Structures are given as C-alpha cells and as structure tokens.
Amino acid sequence: MSADDSDPLARARVATRLPAQDLDRARRFYSEQLGLEPVDERPGGLLYRCGGAEFVLFRSTGASPGTFTQMAWEVDDIETAVSTLKRRGVVFEEVGLPGLLGGGRTSDGIAEIEGNYPSKGARGERGAWFRDSEGNLLGIGQLVL
C-alpha cells in the first residue's frame, strides 16, 4: 500500500524530538557548538528551526542510547561544516560500518557512503557523526552527485 494525499501522515510535517536530561546544558551545546538558537520555548522544551524543518529538545528522565543516528542535516559542503563545528569544540566520531567505502571507516571524521536514494539523484553520500551534550547521535550528510 502506498501513501497518497488522502493519508493523514502523508500530508503531515515531520517534527523530530530529541531527549535532554539537562535542558540548560543542551541549550548551551546547541548554541555554542552548533550555532543554533531556539525560536520558541515552553516549560521543558526548546523549538529549533533549520532550513524549513524543525526539531525539539525536550526534558526527559530517559537517556538516549546514542547507538543510531537520531537526526541529521544535509549540507552542501561537509568539509566546511565539519571544520567549523570542530573549531567550536564538536568531537566527531571515528566509526567503521558496513556500507562505508575506503575500508569501511571514517577519515578525519568523514565517511564515504555507498549509494543513495534514487529519488535524490545522487550516486552516494558523505557523512559525519557527533554526539550532542545529551548523548544523541547526530549526523551531517552531503550528497555525492
């Protein structure tokens, strides 16, 4: 079964939610390391907007396992993005995973990823991963055209 305009979720906006055990610490990380400021807030939550999408950091007593990418940004120049964030103190993960080219490992925090979604018109992707102050695993990707 495929989704069409009559399906309520097919028309809905996706809004990512990321847990934060310490919302003040998370706000500082997102501001100082990522250069992002909330556009709105409520008790226990901070709303951010990036490139027409939004995500929320919410106060949670649970901790993220950080074992998978929970949210990612697509950028035009991954080297510049990684370099800028490193200067701000972001530490990128050096990982080895199936599907990564170049021996299956990142190099200087950046991985060459085999393939991409056909609808994006790319032959691959470059990716990098880091953790926020709350242990959420976040990614940056650049399409390889």
Q: How would you sum up this structure, described in words?
A:
- This protein is α/β, with parallel strands linked by helices and 145 residues long.
- The chain has one domain: Roll (2,3-Dihydroxybiphenyl 1,2-Dioxygenase, domain 1), CATH 3.10.180.
- Helices cover 17% and strands 32% of the residues.
- It has 3 helices and 8 strands; from the N terminus they run αβαββββαβββ.
- It has helices at residues 8-11, 23-32, 78-87, and strands at 15-20, 40-42, 45-50, 53-59, 71-74, 111-114, 124-131, 137-144.
- A hairpin with a 2-residue loop joins strand 2 (40-42) and strand 3 (45-50).
Quickly count the domains: 1
Parts with pLDDT < 50 across at least 5 consecutive residues:
none
Please identify the oligomeric state: single chain
Return the string of H and E elements.
HEHEEEEHEEE
Instruction: Give the neighbour order of strands across the main sheet.
Output: 1-4-3-2
Return Rg in Å: 16 Å
Question: How much helical structure, as a percent, in the residues?
Answer: 10-25%
Structural class by secondary-structure content: alpha/beta
Topology diagram in text:
Elements: H1 8-11, E1 15-20, H2 23-32, E2 40-42, E3 45-50, E4 53-59, E5 71-74, H3 78-87, E6 111-114, E7 124-131, E8 137-144
Parallel strand pairs: 1-4, 5-8
Antiparallel strand pairs: 2-3, 3-4, 6-7, 7-8
What would the keywords be for this entry?
2,3-Dihydroxybiphenyl 1,2-Dioxygenase, domain 1; 145 residues; four-stranded mixed sheet; alpha/beta; globular
Short description:
The chain is α/β, with parallel strands linked by helices. Helices cover 17% and strands 32% of the residues.
